[in-house]
Amino acid sequence: MRHCDDEVLAALALGEPVDASDAAHVDSCETCAREVAELRELQGTLVDAGTVGPLVAPPDGVWEGIEARVAAEDEADDPSVVPLTAGRRPRRVPDRTFAGWVVGAAAAVGVVIGGAVVALALRDSGPEQSLVATAELADLATEEDAGTALVERRDDGTEVLVIDTAYVPAAEGSLEVWLIDPDVVGMVSLGFLTGDHAEFEIPAGYDVASFPIVDISVEPADGDPTHSGDSITRGILEG
Amino acid sequence: MSAGTAMVTEATERDDAPDDRSVDRDFAAGVDGSLERLYRESSALVFTLALRALGDRTEAEDVTQQTYVAAWRGRDRFDPDRGPARAWVVGIAKRTIADALAARSRERRRLEAVRDLPNPGETDPLAAEAERIVVRGEVESLGPPRSTIVALAFFEGRTHEQIATELRMPLGTVKSHLRRSLLALRRGLEAADASL
Known about the structure:
The complex is a heterodimer.
Chain A: H1 6-13, H2 20-28, H3 30-49, H4 60-76, E1 129-139, E2 145-154, E3 159-164, E4 174-180, E5 187-193, E6 197-202, E7 213-219, E8 231-236
Antiparallel strand pairs in A: 1-2, 1-8, 2-3, 3-6, 4-5, 4-7, 7-8
Helix pairs in contact in A: 1-3, 2-3
Chain B: H1 3-15, H2 22-29, H3 34-54, H4 57-73, H5 85-111, H6 125-141, H7 146-155, H8 160-167, H9 171-194
Helix pairs in contact in B: 2-3, 3-4, 3-5, 3-6, 4-5, 6-9, 7-9, 8-9
C-alpha cells in the first residue's frame, strides 16, 4: 500500500482540500491518519508557543565575553602545559557553584592514610618571595573560617601556594589540594595535605587568575587521579 | 523500509538547504568561527530560556555565556548525527539554568534555614514555558519567509488570505510554505528532543 505524500498529510492537517483518493487512503490508513493527527497537534503547539512572545536577543557584550573566555582557554591549551583532562576518565565534578558550598564531608575525622607528600620543602631559607594573591579558606560543611591560602612568587618566577589550615586527617582517604577554574571544570592537583602548613609549587602554565579556587578534597585511595567531588574546604584567591 | 520512511527522507532533502547542517559538522570539528555561527543562530533562544526561567537579565547573560563556553569545551561530546548543535546547546542551557535555580534555592534555604519551605521544583511550570520558547526558536530557525508566515498564521492568528495580502504573495505559495513549514518543524522538534 502506498502511503500519502507528506505534503498531502500536511495539507489535510491544515484543512486544505486534497485528492479524493488521498482522502480515502487516510480514512483507511492508520499510519497516515496518525501523521495527520500529529501535524494537527503541532499546530496547537504552535498557537500555544505564540503566548510566550518573541525571542529576546542577548546584548552584544555576551558574545564578547564568550569569545574572550574561549580565547583564553585555547591559549592555555598550549602543548607545553599539562592538559587538565589528559588520561583522566570522567568522574563526578566537584560542586558546580559557589552557592553550593555544601559538600558532603561531615566525617573528615579519623586516621590519615599515608599519602605521598608532593609539597616542595620551601622553608624560610628559600629565595626571596613576593605575595601574589591570598584567600580566606572556609570549611564547606560549617562555612566557618578554615585558615588561609596565599600564593607567593619566587625570584626564579615560579609560584608557590602556601596553605595554613587546621589539619584534620580524613577518615576515608587523603586530603588533596587543587586549583580550580571559576567554572569548576578545569583543575590541577597540587599534591596532598599532611599537616597544618604546606607549600606547593604551582606548575608552569597555571596562573591564579585562571585558576583562582583553592580546593581541598577527600580522595579515596582508589588509584583514580581525578577529583573525588568530595570537597571539604575552599577559598578564592584574590590578588 | 516502509514507503512512509522513504517519503520522510525525500521531504528532508527537499526542505533542507544543502549546507543547512554545515555549522553542526564544523562545530563538532572545532572549526574556527563555528562557535560564533552557532551563537548567532541560537543565542536568542538560549537567552530567552534563561531570561524567562531566572527573571534577571544579568543572570541570564551569565548563563548564556556559560552555556556557549561549556558547549565549546565539550564539543567532542557533540555528535552531529544525533541532531543539530542548536538543540544540543539548548540541552546545555537547560542544565545550566537548572544549576542556577538550584544554587538560588540553596541560597534561599540557607537564608530561611528555620522555615522548611516545600520544594517548588517538582511540578515545573518553567518546563512548559521552556518548551514554548524552544518551539519559537524552531520557527525562527525556518528563516524568512517561512518564519514570518508561520508566526502570522499561528502566533497572530491571521488567515492564509490575510497573510497572502500582507506579504504580497500568491495564496498558493503561502499554503505551500505552511505545509512545508509544518513538516520541517515536526522534524526539527523531533531532532531537538533526540539530542537532549
